[in-house]
Design brief:
- A hairpin with a 5-residue loop joins strand 3 and strand 4.
- The protein starts with a helix and ends with a helix.
- The strands form three sheets. A three-stranded antiparallel sheet has the order 3-4-5. Strands 1-2 form a two-stranded antiparallel ribbon. It has a two-stranded antiparallel sheet with strand order 6-7.
- Helix content is 40%, strand content 19%.
- Bound molecules: zinc ion (ZN).
Length: 139
């Protein structure tokens, strides 16, 4: 259960997308475009608060990501633990997945839509992974 002060904030500052079931944040965002609120004089990520309230503390080295790939979404059912290194992707991606995308795209020259098909993920997810790999590995 989410504590009631937080529920009041959610009721006032979100709306539901009935198609995707995302709970869309209408409040403030940080420069990574993640939903934030002011709490005791500092900005905190809404998804971290919600995850902690619902599921418990966040392990060191991990971060919370939206598995629906919508950075404005604060729906608890759409939040999951991801690696801190890949949280800037906006979704969870493990090293094996990243290594596979890197091989298929940079070594084999496979098209992004074909990679998406093979991995069973969206093309936009593959595109963001490639951007991330390119920057991280200076490709
Ligand atoms: Zn969502």
């Amino acid at each position: 259960m989410i504590s009631s002060p937080m529920q009041e904030i959610l009721d006032a500052k979100t709306h539901r997308n009935e198609h995707t079931k995302c709970l869309i944040w209408e409040g403030e965002f940080d420069r990574k475009r993640q939903p934030i609120i002011e709490y005791m004089g500092t900005s905190v990520q809404v998804i971290k608060i919600l995850y902690t309230l619902a599921r418990g503390s966040i392990p060191a080295g991990a971060d919370i990501v939206q598995k629906c790939e919508n950075q404005r979404c604060v729906e608890i059912e759409h939040l999951e633990l991801g690696q801190a290194a890949t949280s800037e992707l906006g979704f969870a991606a493990n090293e094996e997945e990243l290594a596979l995308v890197k091989k298929l795209y940079f070594d084999d020259g496979m098209r992004q839509d074909k990679i998406a098909e093979q991995l069973g993920v969206s093309a936009s997810k593959v595109s963001r992974m490639i951007t991330y790999i390119r920057r991280r590995d200076s490709l």
